[in-house]
TrEMBL record, chains A, B:
Highest taxon of the lineage: Eukaryota
All residue ranges annotated as the Plastocyanin-like domain in the record: 34-147, 156-322, 429-546
This protein's name: L-ascorbate oxidase
GO cellular component: extracellular region; plasmodesma
Length: 574, 574
């Protein structure tokens, strides 16, 4: 019955603006001592917002204006916040990408983000400067719509992340050192900012020989219990803001009906567990049954895509009436084996747009090939796209464009950049160049991006990269193995009902093709959402509608640094 | 013979400007992995300049213009550098005090310091934003003069510091937490950035039962050996940039003739060891004898003024021909007991200006009483001066003054602020207020500052505070026990030959009086040089010559943040 109701709402993509309101928030960002996983001897602090970690959940209604005054109370670090999944139509300076759309907010200062949330969906927000996401600067953002008639008996937000015991500063430095010092796998996985280090709540099943987790209810690491009633439907809003880990979530004894991905409805499908990459969000429906007597079930989150060295995160689905302190009768679900990419791809390929979504334009005006490689630069390890490793400059690109300051625009490579490259071997010439160059895109066109994966510096290794685009949703036209073949693979694109997303995985030794319409002038980041990879240069920047950016009324507060800051100062001389 | 020559040069206080040159340096500031004390498992990174720690020594000649282009290559932190001991006559914006004289330099950006070094002396430089001094951002600055005819057979710079295994961010957070988490005593003391954690080079004398230090020549912790010849005179230039520790330095078997303090010559006197507080510099002459056979002697540095929990730092005075690897025949000098303040004061009171220095003005126009207390603010531990704990705002004071932006000026308290206070007990009302207010001083007057110490929050504790003044040297008129008595104690001021300094200790339960002439318009920090104390509010700010600051041609690059930055942006609208 519920599913039937669902079909009726999926065509409602834009909220009525008549009843739109304003959500105005005052936030203070600061470090605080915190033990997300109750580990002893860890660095023990996170970036909090108004004293909480994760930051407060933003609840808004489609059509609302969201105004967030962010005061930086860190001692010496700048800060920005990116609203992941919000397209920032007409407000690109509120996108919160340091060096692209704004200057970092200086300690002691306040910057006001002001944007519209145009449609219902599950989103999140996070720091986008240095590796402050890894330092804990994130939270959920849920946009509902009165037109969304889907009924559920309750909702739970599950914000998934990973946690290291070394500070983000230490991690940045490790990755930028010569030779690079890899940060390793996370110490813990967190569900809503809560995890348990080096122990297991399911210890009595001898889970990996781990000892019992000891925590009190009020501890930072005490898991959020999902309390449910029988014979009900719950919407789980799941978001992954991991720094590194690709995850899989399962609920023991329950199936999950996937209904939303990255803020867009999908044709519902049912799975036993769900893969989720950093930068992705999903809504799944969980139907409770009527266990007698009432009992508890495990919710487990484990690592995929990299050889795991991190304990599963666990919490509990607690049926009303079940014992509070008793043991669970069965062990938690086992995370599928990390390198079963076939299984991962099967999941990815199950996702189609819900009925009612218009198909993508049939043809594109431009093809952009992005070859993903791991490289070296004078002994430093870098990730490069088309042989260039991105270095974001101190002057925000949007300001440089607006005021005609010098900027390097990159040429679009042809398909030969892939054709001439052996993706199955380490690069013949592993050397890369660091570049601040960006790609210029006119407005009003259809762009295809073909992401091509390759072997890294070590033999027989290729990694998953979840690519995230700012300012847009895109259609995922297809995934493929090996090299993309122009004129062949593009003939097989799904142009009927491809899912609209803002994040998409690029699988090892394969390609992913996506399409978007340049309908949103601004400067938009497109990057691997794995924070260490981005830190090492794995991203590109799109300057969309340069002719319109130059006319934009960008709040100068966003541009008070670098060359734009200098320019304002000199203009002001009298 | 040497001493005789010495007298002749002490009257030469200002260098000829005819031959003045330019010292231009290009610096890059970044974090790097480093093991100053070879400890395992420490955070292991320091702030380096051009890849070195401590930063490069600046060598200049009196009269030179020093131009330093500082590029911030930290990932998310701002940075400034203060040139400790340089008075910045006419260039207050080059003083490098964040929030007072400039905005922090943003990551990726460059700020140019440009100032004149007007006289010979031993100085240093260090970070002055957050607790970046504790993160290792410091180095020596030596100004010589061709008119300084003192002959020595060689010079050694000894830059003393202390080192923690937790990052400066962690320390800042600890001190700012509720309740405050004290950072504890340093893990190691460093000589020229080199120390040995939890071990002793003199282990074979069973020094505190410590094990042998193991290091290789190329290790960061390998001590700098002072290689000397017999029957020679060496000038040791000693500076302390400790975050917390008060130090004592001794050279086994050698006396030290003190000739310079904080860049001013003093009447030479000879000691067996020298106390040095954070912010102070000294030059001492060390005369070698002729040991037969040639041998090695210990140079030891230990903690005073706080109950020590840190191993002595050791290095070696190595006579030419002594064995490279052999043991020393005798144990290192023992640091005087930490709380023998009588001994400390005896040393302080031995320091007089060298002949040739004019005496201070006979009378002062203004008396400023500064009562030092430890307090609480809503459960946070603070240090307060006259019941106000300093919070430096994001807009640099010098910019607020220059452009007439709102600013709070504090009233000068009368002597009753001390008279009415029981300095021997914890504060009756321990609560303080945080304030950004500053003191206004007209130019062309003589100011006396009376620093009054008191009991902290715990009973029967009062601490040493080395107070440092920017932009000026001052005369130390006197030290006294208990409360300062106006009309009594000021009658006993030394107005004949008080030493000119920029840093002076305030002893437990006592007072210190100093005098300076307001001959340098600018905004000048006067603060306890103990970094945790300053972080907790222990400082005041002097706005000197406001009527002249408003006319100053301050480089706008120094003011591109906060309200001044905003103002420039709005002025620039067209």
């Amino acid at each position: 019955m519920l599913v039937i109701v669902w079909w009726l709402v999926t065509v409602v993509m834009v909220a009525a603006h008549s009843a739109s309101g304003v959500v105005e928030l005052y936030w203070e960002v600061e470090n605080q001592f915190w033990s997300p996983d109750c580990a002893e001897g860890s660095t023990g602090f996170v970036i909090t917002i108004n004293g909480t970690f994760p930051g407060p959940t933003i609840n808004a209604v489609a059509g609302d204006t969201v105004i967030i005054h962010v005061k930086n109370k860190l001692f010496t670090e700048g800060v920005v916040i990116h609203w992941h999944g919000i397209r920032q139509n007409g407000t690109p300076w509120s996108d919160g990408a340091a060096g692209l759309t704004q200057c970092p907010i200086n300690p002691g200062e306040t910057f006001t983000y002001n944007f519209t949330v145009d449609k219902a969906g599950t989103h999140f927000y996070h720091g986008h400067y240095g590796m402050q996401r890894s330092a804990g600067l994130y939270g959920m953002m849920v946009v509902t719509s009165p037109k969304e008639t889907l009924h559920s008996d309750g909702e739970f937000n599950l914000l998934l992340s990973d946690w290291w015991h070394q500070s983000s500063t230490f991690q940045e430095l490790s990755l930028s050192s010569k030779p690079m010092r890899w940060i390793g796998e996370p110490q813990s996985l967190l569900i809503n900012g809560r995890g348990q280090f080096n122990c297991s709540q399911a210890w009595y099943f001898n889970e990996g020989g781990l000892k019992e987790c000891k925590f009190k209810k009020e501890d930072h690491c005490a898991p959020t219990i999902l309390r449910v009633k029988p014979n009900s439907v719950y919407r789980l809003r799941i978001a992954s803001t991991t720094s590194l880990a690709s995850l899989n979530l399962a609920v023991e004894g329950h199936q999950l009906e996937v209904i939303e991905a990255d803020g867009n409805y999908v044709t519902p499908f049912t799975v036993k567990d769900i893969d989720i990459y950093s930068g992705e969000t999903y809504s799944v429906l969980l139907r409770t049954h009527n266990p007698s007597p009432p009992r508890k079930y495990w919710i487990s989150v484990g690592v995929r895509g990299r050889k795991p060295n991190t304990t599963q995160a666990l919490t509990v689905l607690h049926y009303a009436g079940a014992s509070e302190s008793g043991r669970l009768p069965s062990p938690p679900p086992v995370t599928p084996i990390w390198n079963d990419y076939k299984r991962s791809k099967t999941f990815s390929k199950k996702i189609f747009a819900a009925k009612g979504y218009p198909p993508p334009p049939e043809k594109s005006n431009k093809q952009l090939f992005l070859l993903n490689t791991q490289n070296l630069m004078e002994g430093y390890t870098k990730w490069a796209i088309n042989n260039l490793s991105l270095s974001v400059p101190p002057t925000p690109y949007i300001g440089s464009i607006r005021y005609g300051l010098p900027l390097e625009y990159l040429n679009f490579p042809g398909p030969d950049i892939i054709e001439n490259y052996d993706i199955n071997k380490p690069p013949v010439n592993p050397n890369t160049t660091v570049s601040s160059g960006i790609y210029k895109l006119p407005t009003g066109i259809v762009v295809d991006v073909i992401l091509q994966n390759a072997n890294v510096l070590n033999v027989e290794v290729s990694e998953v990269h979840p690519w995230h685009l700012h300012g847009h949703d895109f259609w995922i036209l297809g995934y493929g193995e090996e090299k993309f073949r122009p004129g062949v693979d593009d003939k097989k694109y799904n142009l009927i009902n491809p899912p609209l997303r803002n994040t998409v995985p690029l699988y090892p030794y394969g390609w992913t093709a996506l399409r978007f319409v340049t309908d949103n002038p601004g400067v938009w980041f497109f990057h691997c959402h794995i924070e260490p990879h981005l830190h090492m240069g794995m991203g590109v920047v799109f300057a969309e509608g340069v002719d319109q950016i130059v006319k934009m009324n960008i709040p100068r507060e966003a541009l008070g640094c670098g060359l734009t800051g200098e320019m304002f100062m000199n203009q002001g001389r009298h």
